[in-house]
């Protein structure tokens, strides 16, 4: 939580930074190409030109650069940055220099690269002559001009940058030589500003909102139609506090992390209740010793301090060990969330604030849960304690009330955590078994990258056909097809469409572009009509294959095969009209959690603007490792400098559920831990009760009570505590479940089956734990027990 949400950026005066963004509910559409998609180049330019609230303002865009010149890609985390990026942040270079506004001019005459210290060590072994070295980024060679300090990782929490280049480099690396800088509808930049002295985020927001109408008028994309432009002109800009940076990781995991922090607090309470019970029992055993000390003149405060010092020792030992274990488990947590395609960086170094919080918490729990036993142990009159028999003065029900309350609390909190654990585990199970509409097993996706220097744009369709032919010839490959967007990749493309000649507002429809054999490769059932084939050439009438959800959305579920639908085009252009030649079953699009969306599939051969990046999905009939080697060889035969990135689709689906797996794994671990602690607590209290009532049990057995009755006596005591805890815990579970509702899939927070399973599981384990003290009580020898009196 500290690293992701609370810690400030390692830059100069981070509290003066603000993130410039669109207000919530703003209307924007266009090409959102990166996780940094907040502004277009036009919006950024107008903000920079008109603003008066900031002493400095900068922009950046996250990307990935391929360091390899062909074959399997070697990816580096990259940043396109404005010339003032490092100056506004107050970040200097440890070697060489950082960028200036002169480095980020439209002509981009002599661009260089600034690299991170970690990348310098990893890729160049810390070469002191790094300023004489170059680096290849997507086939473009740039000189290294500087290295930033080791503490600077960028401005995005959860990501560490490797290479930064000026914004203008985007034009050099683009296929058309213009890039996103020239596109008014390309959303690819984020922006931050450093407040002038005396300015606050609230004042800066007011200033930006006053400027917003003029900025939107100039920056409205020319591709927008009248209605789109009207909605865009109503947008407002805001300045949000930026001391802790920006983070997609924070957006995705902030709620789960706070929930897990609350869970650890509940486990801590259970552990403390356990500790308090143990200390109460220990203090009860030492009552005679304490009475003697009091009778001889020892002050009550002195005895309380002695007992507190013992619990303080426990707190120090436990907190010290916990701090070490926390470092190991925190790094394991980051490793759990890190994937090959999404490397995660979270600063988990030694932090005095976290250590101070841990120490304060340890002392607080020590004082709170150690003081009560100490206070109870020293409040008895010495004469009363000295007169007590072997049963002790705390053997009565009144004296044991606090211990019983602590056990009830433990059981209640444990049930709450166990219900949460079962909910998250069952939710993950639902997601992992959900029908996605295709069979991911045996699918390999291969992203192919063809740089503009290799082939002219007009030759790309021919190149892709040749790759398809060579891949199809591989003996271990069952089928192969080209696709623009791989399912469950997080990418999307949507537009407004109308069925037939209908008017009105239309419906939002998702799109994908696929080649012949795609549905066969994905094993998606064609319900009616046909797949794409050679008839669907660039000059042929435009056609589409749609899923069931499109039929429902555009044609009210009626006959759609052979019908047409039109799709909204840019301003000044006629709408595109497509004829439906096939209908397929519903499939998942962006993620498994979503409901089935309306998806229209368009033929790859009818794409007019063919780009140098595409994907092939391959269904294999043998081990995928062996197939991958054949895929690499086949693509290298077309051209050795064609880049590729391969992914196993089942792995991609599993990685899309990382948040759900995190919650299921950790909540299950905490739930089990809480159940174990509560069971130990119940066992301890019952075992203590049996030990303190040995005389009473001996008398009962001497008067004729059989072993079964003695067992029932003990089990009834445990059962009463258990039932009370389960009743309170049920209420807590229903209350706490509301917070988890949004993260569940296919379940309600108040799912009766889950609640019943948790109650039965916890009750069963707890009652089994009482068997040992009950059995021990039933085997007492009455003569031995009475002789102790």
Quick tags:
about 800 residues; alpha+beta; globular
What characteristic shape results from the CA principal axes?
globular
Describe the biggest sheet? 10 strands, mixed
Provide the helix percentage: 40-55%
Number of strands: 24
Number of helices: 24
Percent of sequence in beta strands: 15-25%
The radius of gyration over CA amounts to 34 Å
SSE class: alpha+beta
User: Spans with pLDDT under 50 lasting ≥5 residues?
Assistant: 389-396
Mean pLDDT: 88
Distance between the termini: 56 Å
Describe the structure.
The protein is α+β, with helices and mostly antiparallel strands and 789 residues long. Helix content is 47%, strand content 17%. Strands 1, 3, 5, 6, 7, 8, 9, 10, 12 and 13 form a ten-stranded mixed sheet that branches. Strand 8 (134-137) and strand 9 form a beta hairpin. Helix 8 (248-285) runs parallel beside helix 19 and helix 13 packs across helix 22 (752-769). The model is unreliable at 389-396 (pLDDT under 50).
Topology record:
Blueprint: H1 2-6, E1 17-22, E2 31-32, H2 41-50, E3 54-66, E4 71-72, E5 75-81, H3 85-89, E6 93-96, E7 113-115, H4 117-124, E8 134-137, E9 140-148, E10 163-166, H5 169-173, E11 186-187, E12 190-195, H6 201-219, H7 226-233, E13 237-241, H8 248-285, H9 287-295, H10 300-337, H11 352-378, H12 382-387, H13 401-432, E14 443-449, H14 460-472, E15 477-483, E16 494-499, E17 507-514, H15 518-522, E18 526-529, E19 543-547, H16 548-555, E20 564-567, E21 576-584, E22 599-603, E23 613-620, H17 624-638, E24 643-648, H18 649-655, H19 658-692, H20 694-702, H21 707-740, H22 752-769, H23 771-778, H24 782-788
Parallel strand pairs: 2-11, 4-24, 5-10, 7-9, 17-22, 19-21
Antiparallel strand pairs: 1-12, 1-13, 3-5, 3-12, 6-9, 7-10, 8-9, 14-23, 14-24, 15-23, 16-17, 16-20, 18-21, 19-22, 20-21
Helix pairs in contact: 2-6, 8-11, 8-13, 8-19, 10-11, 13-19, 13-21, 13-22, 14-17, 19-22, 19-23, 20-24, 21-22, 21-23
